[in-house]
Structures are given as C-alpha cells and as structure tokens.
User: Fold these one by one.
Assistant:
Number 1:
Amino acid sequence: MRILVISDSHGRNDDIEGVLKQVGDIDMMIHCGDVERGDSYIREIADCPVVMVAGNNDYYLDLPSEEEVRIGDYKVLVTHGHGYYVNSGVDYLREHALEYGYDVVMYGHTHVPYIEIGDDVTILNPGSISYPRQAGRKPTFLIMEIDEEGQAHYAHGYYKEQFDELML
C-alpha cells in the first residue's frame, strides 16, 4: 500500500497535481491542512481515498480539525498541528498520541519535513509542497509504504525532482 502525504499547499493545486503525476500510483492521499481552496478538486484528481484536515488558514472549508484513520494495522492521527504548538516542537503531539494510543501522527503547519520513528509512536511531517521553510527550501512530500509483512516505511521526496521507490 502506498500513501502520499502532503501539507501546506495553500491553494496551489497545480503543485498537488504535479506531485500526483510525479509519484505515480497511490492507494491513498493525506493532506495535513492549509489546503485553502479546491478540496473537491483535490479529491477528484487524486483518484483514490483522500483524508484532508483543516489547517489554521482553512477558514472557509468544511474539513475536520483532526481525523483518525486506519492504515493497515496502524492507528493514525492526521492533524495540522497548530493546536499542539508544533512550532515549538512535537512534545504535546507525542503526549497526545501516546495517551490515545496512536501508532503514527501526521502533521503540517511548520512547512519543515520531519520523521521521528519511536518505539511507541512515529511522528511525521511531509513539509510543504508549495512554500517550504527548511534549509535549501525544496518543496517536499512524504511517502508511506506498507510492505507485504504489514510494516510501514517512510521517506521524504522532493517535488519536481526524481523520486525513486523506497528502499525496503
């Protein structure tokens, strides 16, 4: 199973379309908020199940602030992250995940890619495909793959650059 995780597109649906073309076939797409417009269009072009949550700039979209989703054997929380003060780190997010039994948490808001694989919880931020803020400012997304044994593997990709399949 292949899941594309994106965030902080801020209305740049051309970037979403470009990433979808770049990564090829996916089984699910997750958007961690700050969609800003075109949520129906995004669902249409994804051509697979889409999970989308509201970010701090999604005033006019009818999206949930958080969503719990099952991916294989993993209980996943999708949130934008601003309500967990992620600009100051992921401590509150981690505590919440542990308290409620999440295996994986996906968030956005910071526009900075992040992967923390812990013994009890994995915390992921795909970065931003439209307005990156990390060093080098390359637009990023994240691919989550579930292998034949049901194990999850994660990797960031750079939008508009060659993306190879994950090394499992």
Number 2:
Amino acid sequence: MSDSTDEVRAYTVRLELVDEPGELLRALHPIADNGGNLLSIFHERGNLTPRGHIPVEVDLEATPERFDEIVDALREAGINVIQAGTQHYSESLTIVVSGHIVDTDLSDTLSRIQQSTDATVTDLSLSAPEGTDDVSSARLRLATEEGETDSTLAALRDIADRKDLRLIEPLTAGDAA
C-alpha cells in the first residue's frame, strides 16, 4: 500500500510571464527540474494581465511534495505565480482607490502591492474623466491566499497612505451588522 503523499496528482499552475523570448522556457525549467510531468500549456500571448504580462496556465502531474517544490522553485526563479493548485490564492477582494493615481505612478503602486502582500492583482479598471493630471479612480480585483485578507488590506492601507490615495475597502465578514 502506498503512502498518499507518494500519489501523483494533477495540478494547475497559473503564471504571469514577461513578453520576452525564452520566458516560457525559463518558467518550464523549474517544473522539469523538480519532477513535474507536463500535461498541457495554455499560453495566452494575445491577452495581457493588468501589469502587461502574458498569462500562462500549466497543467502538470506531480506528488504533493514535488508540487510544493515546483512552486517554490518557480518563485525562486522570479516567475510570478498567480495560482498554484486550489489551496493558493483562493480568496478575492475588490477595492477602489482614488486620488492622483496616475501622477503617483500606477505601475509603482501595482509593484508595491505585489511586493508587500501575498496577493496578486487579477483585474484593474482605471477611470480618469478629467485627464491623467487630475484625480482618478481605479478598481482593483485581487486574489489572495486563504486567511490573508486582513493582512493584505493592512498592506493596501499603508500603500495608499504613503501615496496620499483614498482606499475604499470591501465589506468583509462581520462588517455588515
């Protein structure tokens, strides 16, 4: 009888890749090097994520232990892992930010979110009705690891405070009474 941790299972990993030659191959090396067996690759070169990267979905087989090693190796290689299996990034939240979003460098704001949270921006909508030099607003949808919503919101508050932006937070469990 085999141990359940030795059972090979199918997993899906969603990645964001920079649109440069060799990036897909660079993302596949950690999978192969850690014993993952590729089942399929869906490379959406015609679509871009809010950060301007290419979404890639990889289906693979591995033992649970090897899968964790694959995800760690992808991250160590600097590959942006949006989702890894079903246990990662299983919660989502939507926030609205208003202020001088463009003047305070939207790209920098998104980078700060990526660097200071365990969340990833999955959707972004920007509205600048008076032009980019005036007050604008952005709706951001984020995917975060289960149980990390509070720490993600705390980091978002800090980023908004540092950039003098107004953060409109979602209602979370227990807020509506």
Number 3:
Amino acid sequence: MVRAVHLLQRTNRAMAVLLGIALLATAALILAEVTMRATSAGMLGGTDEISGYVMAGVAAWGFAYALLERAHVRIDILHRRLPPRGRAALDLLSIASLATVAGLVAFHGWGVLAKTIARSSRSNTALEVPLWIPQSIWLGGWVWFTLSALALLVAASVLVAAGEREAAERAVGLVTEAEELA
C-alpha cells in the first residue's frame, strides 16, 4: 500500500511539472500581449480567455497534487487531542468526505460536458473555442482528483485495518511536519 501511495505521489508530481509549464506558457502569452499593447504593435487577442481556461485546468489537476503533498487546509485542533484510533477515524472520514465532494463535482461536471458536446457549444468570443476542450481538461482534473482521493482512502483504510496507523499517517500524509521530523 505504501508503494502505491508513493507511485501516486510521483505521478502527481510529474503532472505538477506539466501544470507549471502550462502556467509559464500562459504567463509568457500574457507578457507578450502586454508588451504588444504597450508598444502599439497590436494585440494577440483571446489571452484573457485562454488564461482562464488554463487556470481552471491547472486548479482542477492541482487538487490531487495538493492532496498527496498535504497542502490542503486542515483544521486539526481536535485532531491533535484525539487518541490514535480517533485520529485514524477522523483522517479516514476527511479523506472519504474529500473523495465524495470531488466525485460529486466530477459527476455533475460530466453532465455539463455532455450538454456542451451535444450542442456543439463554442465560446461567445472571437476565438470561438469549442467548449468541450477546456471542459474536458477541467473535468479530467476532477476525475483524477476523485480517483487519487479514493486510492488514498483505500490505502489508509487497509493500513489502519492492519493496525498500522503510523504507516497510514506517513503514507497518506496525515502526519504534521513536526511529528514527521520527530
């Protein structure tokens, strides 16, 4: 189970590199647009639309990376005061809740994408982007986030059931940095 979580972490880190490249390319596009406007060389056009699509895709795909890197916000006032079994139960509940919410967004996102495809919807801008393209990228991120959260839930559940709560906390990222260094 620990190896599976590490594989998931490596996969998400590789995806994060691709997301970073997409953000850098978007920043370069915006910089080119600003420079062209400042020098009266014209405009590229559509930069704001493209950057919006990139931000939506990066955010959706970045959620799984944040989950595996323990970057999501946690309120652990109660968590620290619980005994090990209570912490494990709360950790499993939090991952299950996260997987459920992500799954609901992905499920409803599919309905939106299906309508977009059925209607051949395009953006109402000069670019007339077929909306299935950015929506597919966005939805793919939510599906990946859901699958990552479910994989994490399964790994944590198996480790906790085997009585390996410390391994579950380390593998799943449920340990605070101070506890990890100790």
